[in-house]
Amino acid sequence: MGLPTGPLPLAVLGFLVLMWLFKLRRAHSLYALEQQYGCGNVVKEKVSRLDFLGVLKVLEFAHHFRHKTALEYTDTLFKKYGNTYMSQILGYRIHFTCDPANIKHILSTGFADYDSSKLRGPLFNPITPHGIFTVDGLDWRVMRDQLRTQLSNNRRICDFVMFEQQFQTFLQRVPPDGQRFDIQGCFISLAIDIQSGFALGDSVGSLHPSPAPAKKHFAEDLHVIKETIVRDGFRGPLRHLSRKLEFRRSCTRARRFVMDYAEREVAKGISQDNAEGYYFMKGLNEKGADAAQLANQTLSILLANDSIATTLSGTFFLLSQHKRVVSKLRQIVLEEIGPNPPTYDQLTKIPYLTYVIHESMRFFPAAPLNARTANKHTVLPFGGGLDGSKPILIRKDDILVFSSWSSHRSEASFGSNPEEFRPERWENLGADVAGFIPFNKGPRICPGQRYAMIAISYMVARLMQTFSNVTDYNPGPWVERISMTLENDNGVLVGLS
Ligand code: HEM
């Protein structure tokens, strides 16, 4: 039987040849790049032959996410394959790394080669279509400049009167005589109260016994939104299989809630009333942002609020198991501050307080896993060759997942027994130690970092001034719950006396 001839089969044949030539040319140019940069082969994750598409792999990830073992699972894979390895999942090439040098490269030196928006855009667009989390390049730079102007004067934006009011409301939730309560639940409420006070100039009052219904619904909507975004992030393309009605409704209501504040702010014009104090929306309005920009930036800030709760909850989980640290911290806080509420200067001058917070962020980083996509062919400095010392080629559209959960547990970076909670290790480490990325690094480093450190230091110092014992009522070890940030699935059960 001869080859079919005629115009259609010939066109198909021509197309196939063209495709083949295109592939050959691409392989050749990738090989040339590998040679140019001295790249080596990266270790590839071994998967069953039946799973050549990587579907089982996605299901495995989703399974670990559901069973609260995703972080342990990724850690096990690093132990098996090394600090940098590659998986192929649903046609995507995904590089996993916990190597501090590679993470630094992705976030700093090679920043321009990697984007955030491709992965985050589809997840965040319904709530912040033009928010800072969903844009890259020039759009991101404009938004970032807007934020920088607002957040640069930390002394001005840290409202100690508001912090103290929030602290006093928090105290009302602490049961007497060291009785058991879930301090994590209270910190989650405290964090959104602080952040809404900061962002809108009007706290949503979650800690209040009877918050206004609209504010209560807003806090609930934010919760639904964050849960869905993170769950869908883990599901990858399989997220399209789940229903999104509740998520969409929550997004619409939450946007409306913030938009109302934005429209009122714009209508007020530029306030001459200095007694009103600073809040983020007011500051942005004074710089001439329109209502949509006010709403997008403010919602982004509000989505970032849980990280404060993660850090405070992690700190008290660890303190409840380390009486020695509680005694030492309390003594130092009382010596340096005395019984009155602290000042800005006092909080920045207590190294041991900062060590405790850094150590807790090392254990429980708010963003334990993070990802970028390559916007061009580029290289990662390590992970190639037999000993991983050579660069590896990263192709355009490859995904890079980096794990602070694992990089924060490295003996090479943090000294012996990294699994031990020991704030004193920070006496010999700087906050810029390789692989320590609670706020990320580079141009996209958390712009709220200094504000967050002061707010957290304030609350820890006030609690240490007020109580001398943190009793541990937790039923067992920390069980991961990855929401927009990291939580303990069992809550953090302590008593304060
Ligand atoms: C302990 C508290 C906090 C932690 C651990 C934390 C951590 C982070 C991390 C890891 C990122 C980088 C995300 C990425 O690029 O993939 C980030 C970004 C960001 N954070 Fe925070 N954050 C905290 C508090 C805050 C606060 C209080 C604010 C606002 C006042 C804030 C505002 C932001 C914003 C707007 C971004 C996006 C920056 C950009 O994309 O350029 N964060 N944060």
From TrEMBL:
Keywords: Heme, Iron, Metal-binding, Monooxygenase, Oxidoreductase, Signal. GO terms for molecular function: heme binding; iron ion binding; monooxygenase activity; oxidoreductase activity, acting on paired donors, with incorporation or reduction of molecular oxygen. Its cofactor is heme. InterPro entries: Cyt_P450, Cyt_P450_CS, Cyt_P450_E_CYP52_fungi, Cyt_P450_E_grp-IV, Cyt_P450_sf. Gene3D superfamilies: Cytochrome P450. Residues 1-27 form the signal peptide. The keyword Nucleus does not apply. This is Putative cytochrome P450 oxidoreductase/alkane hydroxylase. It comes from Aspergillus violaceofuscus (strain CBS 115571). The lineage of its organism: Eukaryota, Fungi, Dikarya, Ascomycota, Pezizomycotina.
